Amino acid sequence: MSKMCIELGDRVALSKVLTVVETSSLEVLSRLSECLVREARSVIVGITGPQGVGKSSLIASLIKELSSDGFKVAALLVDPSSPTTGGAVLGNRLRIPELPSEAFARSVWAEDERAIPLRAIASLEVLEAAGYDYILIETPGAGQVNTSILRISDLVLVVLMPFLGDEVQVIKAGLMEIGDIYVVNKADVPEADLMYGYVRSLVRDKPVVKISALYRKNIRELVEVIKTEIGKKDSEGRRALKRIERRKYLVEETLVEQMHRILRRELVGVREEELLKKPDRLIEMVRDLKTRLANKIVEGPVV
Ligand SMILES: Nc1nc2c(ncn2[C@@H]2O[C@H](COP(=O)(O)OP(=O)(O)O)[C@@H](O)[C@H]2O)c(=O)[nH]1
Ligand SMILES: [Mg+2]
Which atom of ligand 1 is nearest to the CA of 215? Predict the structure, then answer.
């Protein structure tokens, strides 16, 4: 095994590799190709839900519980806040105190809260190569439901809590379709029972688990439900299919990112007075940009 592959076993070295992967995803993955695994090794659990419901706290609890079972656990916290302020990034990291020695956690900045960034998907491949049994990935689910979590996760946990107010509309609008397991957090609050009943009535055929991430109540029960649901997915061959879907997403996002970059550069060259003319001129402009974009893609580097 090459030095690079062995280094993935060291948390500090792994962080450095991930930093490089985040800036130049596919290229670095190709350099890592001998470490990447052919068979699915990691169970990827997506954890989504509105801001403040306790997703990060739940991840901290799950890391502890799964680690005590002897599993190697990694967590990726996708964070839509600005990378320049750094506040939330650090905040997310700090909420996981006393990380077990075998576990790993990292924040990934996302410019768009509706999509999972390419750098996070590429990081999943590296974490799988590093031998993690479980990779927990937190994505924000506020406002718009982030359905890209479905494309990359073997299992999706939707986290809710009492007193969601207006967000109940969001839940009705889409969150109730994307989850494999529903988690009602903050069970220490009396009103949690009401929320639990409500969620139960909305998702009749899916498991609903009431927990307290902060006080670590019912985490063991949740872990058992996760294992049962993963077992079902495995027996139906769904995890293998999900892995294919994940790799498609990786290829797709690489191209989308590249096209965006080129397009933004090309648009700088568009004369402003052209944009002030009648809108039928825009069709010509789009046609022209399309040709230029295609040429740039053909001439440019592969990734
Ligand atoms: N009462 C109570 N508060 C909790 C529980 N879990 C998390 N919280 C609190 O809820 C707030 C938001 O938690 P966080 O994990 O950052 O939520 P996220 O935005 O969904 O990641 C924090 O102040 C947590 O301490 C719980 O089980 N009970
Ligand atoms: Mg969080």
Answer: 27
Whole-angstrom distance, CA of residue 131 vs CA of residue 119? 19
Q: Which of 110, 102, 104, 197 is CA-nearest to residue 148?
A: 110
**pLDDT tens across 230-262, in order?**
999 999 999 999 999 998 998 888 888 888 888
**Buried b or exposed e, range 250-282, using 16+ CB within 10 angstroms:** beebbeebbeeebeeeeeeeeeeeeeeeeeeee
Report CA(41)–ligand 2 centroid distance (Å).
26
**36-238 CATH:** 3.40.50.300
Q: Is residue 146 in contact with ligand 1, taking CB distance under 6 Å?
A: no
The full set of domain ranges for the chain reads: 36-238, 247-299
Reported as a single tens digit per residue, the pLDDT across 209-227 is 999 999 999 999 999 999 9
pLDDT for 94 beyond 50: no
Handedness of CA 79, 247, 2, 44 (dihedral sign): positive
Question: What is the pLDDT, as a whole number, of residue 297?
Answer: 80
CA-based angle 49:54:58, to the nearest 5? 100
pLDDT of residue 47: 95
Q: How far is the CA of 53 from the centre of ligand 2 (A)?
A: 8
